[in-house]
Structure prediction request, 198 residues.
Amino acid sequence: MSGRRSLVTAAIRVSSVSVVWSLLVGTLAVIAGVSAHALALVALGLESIVDGSASVVLVWRFEVERRDPDRARRVERVAHWFIAVTLLVVAVYVAAQAIRALATGAEPDGVTAGIVIAVASMVVLPFLAVAKLRLARRLQSAALRGDGILTATGAVLAFAVLLGLVVNETFGWWWSDAGAAVLIAAFLGREAWNSFSN
Prediction:
């Protein structure tokens, strides 16, 4: 039992770090994306904020288990569904905005801050994702696994954003930003579907 307790404490710590990182970077990405009209960067920021929100739920979930292990299973289900619903909402929003951007020919401008945010996310997020997924396996927590996948998705999406921004800056392919956002929406939608299925 003390072994599980130390794993629960580790899950709280890694989820807490994820909250701080995700909310900070997500807010910066949304601000930079809106000012640069970079839809994929806004999508990355929203995904990051969702990841931070999911991590808040995970901190709550494991704090409940630490205080009252008998409630852990019920709280686990609530956390798992919260993550699935938030994934779906962000996927629908990003898809709608990407379609609108493609239809209107909107293109990003001034994307240096976005490139820095995307690179930073590609460096930090894989470490957080691996820590969450390892703990999820040892704790047998579908909610923490979902959050780990969400964090790993953030790293992949950061790469897609970086690619879209660099391609637009280099070749002037205005549609690459919205195209990256469509890929992000599809990926998030798939993860939401998988979460609902489990």
About this structure: The radius of gyration is 17 Å. The mean pLDDT is 86. The chain has one domain: 2-197.
